[in-house]
Amino acid sequence: MAKLSQFQMTDAKSWSGMTTKNHIGAIWNAAPQKASNIMTMVHQTNFGMDLDTYLNQFGVKVLENEDDFVWELIGTSKKNIPLVEARLTRNGSAIAATDKPGVGFSRFFMVFEEQWFTDVNVIVGHMNELYPLRIVADPEPDGNYWVYEVELMSDSSDKYMDTEELVAGRRFSKDWSIVEQTLSRKGGGVNFTSPFSMRNQFTMIRMQHQTPGNMINRPFGTMFKNDKGQTFKIWTQYQDYQFDHQFRLEKNRGLMFATSNRKSDGSYGNFGKSGFVIKQGAGIRQQMEASNTVFYNDFTIKYLLNVLLDLSENKLSMDQRKFVLKTGERGAVQFHYALEDFSQLFQPLFNEDRMFKNDGMGLTSLGLGYGGQFLRYVGPMGIEVSVSVDSLYSDRERNKIYHPDGGVAESYRYDILDVGTSAGEANIQKVMAKGQEDIWGYEPGLRDPYSPTGGRMKYMANAVDGYTVHRACVFGAKVTDPSRTASFIPNILAA
């Protein structure tokens, strides 16, 4: 680790695995008198709520075993579909630019990939009220396509449909089912969408650490205070704290960043030391990839609002449009500046709420301070957005691409994870296997964690003078409906 300043006397040492008393002696033995007896973690990253804690507030889904878990989604009965081509005759060639489809109430034919419309439906393309088309018969199959016979709903025999509105890719939707008012014989059909299944698998992580017997209750040459103010004077206390902290980091990374290793045929190509397959489930990021991913160069509140409207309109009621942007520290600052710029359009920025009297510097009796950070925005159409800082985004060890404005590029990413509920459950949930939420135990040797204060040993698992702590967890993540999530990613991270 690079020195923090010219006043730093020693370099920090790093190691992994078992710690012996030689490690302690090499680092802290014969140390000079210290001005402070408290060791501080310089690179402490526990700012904000971590992902595991964040997901707990939405409820954890506990399943009976570690088998793959599945859930079903069903699409909406409202949609538009693209045109393959339009023809003047059923089996003819595509309409030419000089043709006049529909003139004199003549009928022509439209080809779609799906059997979505029915007889007597009125369908419209991009020019909704200008060119309404009535389907005059049920569709007929044509290879993988469906052919519909249509006529223009018009008030003049001179009118015809612009051929520009009948090119491949133009999208059409159903408006209503029109029939005659006297002795009508048939109505339009009902649209259905079948459910489709989603699947994910659990991920199992495991860590262990061995402690020699003569390290049990061995005092530090100094003391350690963690970010919560707890002070540790004994090596095993510090060791257990680091074990728990690093295990939690691994779990958080797995929940967010894990990518499925299931092959397209359902099998796996990774095998563990036991000879059995290793399964890695898809984390939240991979499950979100399929929808609502936008890349940006310049982050503005207007741009953010536009994307949130795309997520909301005709999907979420006004009281459900509350979004949380998970981001890094740089992203939180960028959000602040964007909202600060935006707020200047409506009110003076230097208002009394953000200015305060400052007498601490001894420079002037009229000294002033200015402060505050924007973390929440309430916008039109019921949209509310707030910022939640997650240390995973600003982690400079894992994230190695830097942003030209400073910090790592990942710190400028925004993820919306909790867009409403699906079927009464949070849209994103942590999934655990029953009884495997936190698997923990120790393997005692000649001594165990409670020696010598725990009295005489009753049993030993091996002859080693020490003990080994084992910890494991089986977990997964479930993004019920990925279309209700979104990611704003700086362009520098575009693949």
Topology:
Elements: H1 21-28, E1 38-39, H2 51-56, E2 61-63, E3 69-74, E4 81-87, E5 108-112, E6 121-124, E7 133-135, E8 140-142, E9 145-152, E10 171-177, E11 195-200, E12 203-212, E13 219-225, E14 231-234, H3 235-257, H4 284-288, E15 293-296, H5 301-312, E16 322-327, H6 329-343, E17 355-357, E18 368-370, E19 376-378, E20 384-389, E21 414-416, E22 421-422, E23 425-426, E24 428-433, E25 439-444, E26 466-479, E27 486-490
Strand content: 25-35%
* Total individual domains: 2
Separation, N- and C-terminal Cα atoms: 31 Å
The coarse overall form would be elongated
E-strand count: 27
Short descriptors:
495 residues, 28% strand, six-stranded mixed sheet, 6 helices, six-stranded antiparallel barrel, 2 domains, elongated
Structure description:
The model is unreliable at 4-9 and 34-48 (pLDDT under 50). The protein has 6 helices and 27 strands. The protein is an alpha+beta fold and 495 residues long. It starts with 20 loop residues before the first helix and ends in a 5-residue tail after the last strand. It has helices at 21-28, 51-56, 235-257, 284-288, 301-312, 329-343; strands at 38-39, 61-63, 69-74, 81-87, 108-112, 121-124, 133-135, 140-142, 145-152, 171-177, 195-200, 203-212, 219-225, 231-234, 293-296, 322-327, 355-357, 368-370, 376-378, 384-389, 414-416, 421-422, 425-426, 428-433, 439-444, 466-479, 486-490. It has 2 domains: 35-76 and 193-345 and 371-495; 81-179.
